[in-house]
Amino acid sequence: MKFTTMMSSRAVILAAPFFFWSGAALAQTEIPAEAEAAVPVQPEGPGPDGGGDHISIGAGAAYMPVYQGAEKYRFQPLPAIDIQLGRFFVNFQDGVGANLFDSESVTVGVGLTPADGYRKKDAPPGIGKLSMGVGARGFVKFRQFGFEATLGTTKILAGSTKGVLVDASLSYPVMISEKLMLNPSIGTTYGDKKHNNRYFGVNAQQALASGLPQFRAGSGFIDAKADLGLQYRLTDRIGVGVVGGVTTLLGDVKDSPIVKRKTQPFGIAFVSYNF
Known about the structure:
2 helices, three-stranded antiparallel sheet, mainly beta
């Protein structure tokens, strides 16, 4: 049985990220950075219980920090979409794109994905907003002995930081029964100097407006994540799931003046219909 993950190293929980019902499993997810990383996996096989071509649509909600390192949390509604038609896909982890190569053990693909930002009212006073953006992502997935390892690189093209992100994750889906699946996952994200500084930095103008000290972040690892997903199939078409996890900031970014909490839990719940 082959599994395919869905994303953003950082959009709803990096992802996440990143929670769609695809017949049986959950995986690693910005729409906010805390949700992208917690996304489901789609088992291979014909029909509504398997992978191959499929359309799964639903809705979910995430409880997550308003930005990475924030003290405040909020609930955020999220769509749950997982579409695979031939080489083409739509999902949160990999975005909208196509698999260039796909086998039992290796998948290589490209897509456009959302890039994280934060609202002016969520950022510390005087910092201002960081607009959501879109990035071009290339990825490779390796599957062996029940594990799935993913390595992706995203260049943010518009909005957000215009920087580069590299995400890596490792998951191990476990079928507890025909209806229940658990999926533990770990992951990390690396950002270049432009991304880290624009997301976590405080320039002279912001320092004057906010009263915070100036801060510049260099390139380096941004965070580490661990989560556990659970999916339960109510019927052949309808499933529900939850994801709980924690992220912790690393390197230079954890010392940013806008970071109030270096380690942050998050949670996601969703329901989805498999066509």
